[in-house]
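In response to the reviewer comment on reproducibility (Comment 2.3), we provide here a single inverse folding case reported in full, input and output, so that an independent group could reproduce the run without further information from us. The structure tokens appear first.
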């Protein structure tokens, strides 16, 4: 006889609605059934208002804004980003609760970096008092790890966290670890390990795309693999104006709909995993502690501007899936299939790769960059195919090339499967390499709105070789096993 009430609810749902025998039902099926009740309704984001967006404004001033941005509750921030956590303490629990009631809202999250994941005991007590179920903090541990060393370090962090997690469970609070550029949990892999190794549902992730590669393919893949181990999704993108004082228009590029990141794939992934956590439209101003714009009304308007951008993204996702459902013929998924006349046959040989000269090796093997300019293939407009200099694999079609005026050949699409994206060593840009030989090609940028596909593969001429239409393609080289 199961005792947990959540289990009972799931079982009731499963045996009642779907009639699946419990004896053969795995926990994954139970989980899937659990989310089925939401089917039929359009996917929506559940918003929280991060108090620090209003700097050190008073709680009395901020709380009425919660409903104006379509949010359910508030995320209380302490100094230096905000000071609403301190205000709440000074006010006392009774007065703060009354103020929350007056504004028909609640505290749904407290952000506490300074206390860190091992210093939250008192904060658990306070969260419980307010009925708040989520506390965001950062991880502790070395940065820059990869592979086995990263897995081991994440495991050690979780081991140290266990007694604190027990205390969180006792208070009914979830610790949400935000990925950050300066510690152990900084990369997609570190987040995946955190999710895979977490021993309790009271340990979750606060996903900050700002601190990750600004590539919607990488980010949406990550969201799909993290699923509902995310407690919070920050609708927040990288922008230079977060660390140095820049004009307001540049600072605001962190906001969804203003900067370069295309949020459509991210929201589509959130929809696919039936994300049930909170979304916070977010940015940091310089210096910290100021509202992002100078009046309360203008901060709210700016958040709503981003919210309306995100709504538009969600609408386009709904429309896409509707038109897919309605289509009786055609290709599933976003990408149109190449028609046969565009396919050029290519032989495959097992051999050593083409020999590279010094300049080629500098770019292709050592991630070098050619100087910008009109040389190479930058201005080439002839019909044909661009292949990999090192292995002859077909990379780009001439019809996907466009004039970007950036000084390098630019394409807004690749030949399917030909190009692999990975995080550049700078942690922000997205490097592209040949999927066959791993040779460096250049970088890919999204959201620049240069073409309808909103994507620019910025490729070094020297990494490619152009084969004019009608000319025979040299055989693609697959490396002999050593
Ligand atoms: Zn190649």
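Designed residues, in position order:
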């Amino acid at each position: 006889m199961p005792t947990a009430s959540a289990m009972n609810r799931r079982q009731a749902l499963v045996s009642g609605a779907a009639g699946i025998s419990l004896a053969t039902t795995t926990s994954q099926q139970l989980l899937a059934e659990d989310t089925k009740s939401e089917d039929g309704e359009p996917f929506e984001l559940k918003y929280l208002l991060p108090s620090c967006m209003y700097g050190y404004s008073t709680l009395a001033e901020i709380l009425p804004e919660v409903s104006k941005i379509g949010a359910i509750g508030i995320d209380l921030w302490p100094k230096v980003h905000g000071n609403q956590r301190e205000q709440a303490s000074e006010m006392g629990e009774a007065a703060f609760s009354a103020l929350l009631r007056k504004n028909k809202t609640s505290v749904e999250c407290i952000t506490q970096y300074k206390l860190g994941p091992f210093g939250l005991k008192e904060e658990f007590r306070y969260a419980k008092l307010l009925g708040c179920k989520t506390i965001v903090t950062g991880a502790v541990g070395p940065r820059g790890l990869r592979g086995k060393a990263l897995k081991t370090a994440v495991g050690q962090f979780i081991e140290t966290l266990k007694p604190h997690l027990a205390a969180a469970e006792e208070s009914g609070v979830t610790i949400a670890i935000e990925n950050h550029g300066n510690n152990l949990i900084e990369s997609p892999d570190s987040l995946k390990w955190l999710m895979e190794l977490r021993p309790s549902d009271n340990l979750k992730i606060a996903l900050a795309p700002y601190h990750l590669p600004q590539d919607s393919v990488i980010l949406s893949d990550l969201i799909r693999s993290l699923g509902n181990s995310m407690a919070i999704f920050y609708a927040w993108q990288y922008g230079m104006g977060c660390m140095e004082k820049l004009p307001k228009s540049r600072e605001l590029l962190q906001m969804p709909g203003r900067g370069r990141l295309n949020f459509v794939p991210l929201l589509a992934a959130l929809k696919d995993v039936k994300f049930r956590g909170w979304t916070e439209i977010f940015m940091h101003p310089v210096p910290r502690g100021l509202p992002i714009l100078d009046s309360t009304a203008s901060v709210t308007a700016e958040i709503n501007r981003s919210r309306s951008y995100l709504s538009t993204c969600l609408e386009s996702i709904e429309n896409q899936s509707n038109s897919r459902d309605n289509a009786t013929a055609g290709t599933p998924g976003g990408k149109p299939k190449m028609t046969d006349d565009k396919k050029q046959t290519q032989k495959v040989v097992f051999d050593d790769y083409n020999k590279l000269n010094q300049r080629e090796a500098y770019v292709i093997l050592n991630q070098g960059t050619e100087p910008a300019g009109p040389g190479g293939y930058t201005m080439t407009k002839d019909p044909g195919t661009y292949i990999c200099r090192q292995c002859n694999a077909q990379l780009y079609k001439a019809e996907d090339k466009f004039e970007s005026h950036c000084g390098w050949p630019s394409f807004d699409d690749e030949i399917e499967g030909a190009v692999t994206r990975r995080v550049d060593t700078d942690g922000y840009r997205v490097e592209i390499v040949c999927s066959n030989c791993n040779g460096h090609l250049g970088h890919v940028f999204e959201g620049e709105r240069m073409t309808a596909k909103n994507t620019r593969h910025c490729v070094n001429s020297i990494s490619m070789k152009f084969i004019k239409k009608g000319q025979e393609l040299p055989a693609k080289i697959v490396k002999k096993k050593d």
